[in-house]
Design goal:
D-Maltodextrin-Binding Protein, domain 2; 11 helices; 2 domains; 320 residues; 5-stranded mixed beta sheet
């Protein structure tokens, strides 16, 4: 297996250095380069292709941060590339990868750090990363602002809820080491993603694993309390966020389909980032996005504001 650093912006860290991906994860420059160049694609450019029917899994539910795929669909970017795409709400990385392996979906978004850890444990052999979607990880832990948890070390002796196989749990030992937490004094329990806010609100757990843009939904769930956020990127500063993944089998069988999907998805992401004042049109006819965030950009890497039926990107710190 070999690794090629993706071209252009895909390979630069926020500090301007070339940042090659981990050796166990393949990023195909042959896919990434045309995907960026083809953002100016016009309808009909792929005339003659058979229409490819594929299923895409979002990284985690239908939060506003997933809105760019609906924008790509609703603006016809997939159709322009002779694709018929069904978008399904994804779950944690393990679940998304299991669905890919079973042929229930052809593409999925998962957290990059989780992919690297699975690769290190020989659990990523069937899959391949084809594009980076976010510049930095958005993994975080959230707790009630009731004085119990204010700093990472306050997590000792506490219970954290997380989706089974999710990256907040996968990455916690590394985060704990950097943050000075005794990992043996922290307990994780697993719930379905949609149960996590109510588990925190009801005091069943002391904190939950989330992405930073999920703050408004958690704030609503635990009202009148406000939210304490412990973002992993305070200590883990050089990790990509979500990446686009497919199977090696599909890549071997139909590399053209993989390239066309990647091209269309990145076109939607690029449009959303470059037109943040009009990205609210995303999915207005067919998708109701969960409100995502109103945090300033300085507190996160890819932050999206939204209300029901609309998505609005407010921060451009996204790789596209």
């Amino acid at each position: 297996m070999h690794t090629t650093a993706p071209p252009g912006a895909l390979a630069q860290s926020r500090r301007g250095r070339w940042q090659p991906l981990a050796a166990a994860v393949v990023v195909l420059a042959v896919l990434a380069a045309p995907a960026v160049v083809a953002c100016s694609a016009t309808p009909g450019q792929n005339a003659g292709h058979l229409v490819g029917k594929v299923t895409y899994l979002t990284a985690f539910g239908t939060f506003g941060r997933e809105g760019f795929v609906y924008l790509a669909r609703d603006k016809g970017y997939f159709t322009d590339n002779d694709l018929e795409v069904e978008v399904q709400p994804g779950s944690a990385g393990d679940t998304n990868l299991q669905l890919l392996a079973a042929g229930k979906a052809q593409f999925a978004s998962i957290d990059y750090s989780g992919a690297v850890m699975r690769a290190g444990n020989n659990q990523f052999d069937e899959f391949v990363v084809v594009a980076a979607l976010q510049a930095n990880t958005m993994i975080a832990l959230m707790a009630k602002d009731d004085g119990t948890i204010r700093t990472p070390r306050d997590l000792e002796g506490k219970t954290i809820g997380a989706a089974k196989g999710s990256v907040p749990e996968y990455m916690f030992p590394g985060y704990a080491k950097l943050a000075g937490i005794n990992v043996d004094k922290v307990t994780f329990v697993n719930f379905a993603p949609q149960q996590l806010p109510s588990m925190l609100a009801g005091g069943k757990v002391d904190a939950i694993g989330q992405f930073v843009p999920g703050k408004p939904a958690i704030t609503t769930a635990i009202a009148p309390h406000s939210v304490v956020i412990l973002p992993y990127n305070t200590y883990m500063t050089d990790l990509y966020g979500n990446v686009l993944v497919t199977t090696k089998a599909l890549l071997r069988k139909d590399p053209d389909l993989v390239q066309r999907f990647t091209r269309a998805l990145l076109r939607g992401l690029t449009y959303a980032v470059q037109n943040d004042n009009t990205a609210a049109e995303c999915g207005t006819a067919t998708h109701k996005a969960v409100p995502a965030t109103s945090l300033p950009c300085s507190e996160g890497n890819w932050l999206i504001e939204g209300d029901e039926g609309k998505v609005h990107l407010t921060c451009k710190d996204v790789i596209a």
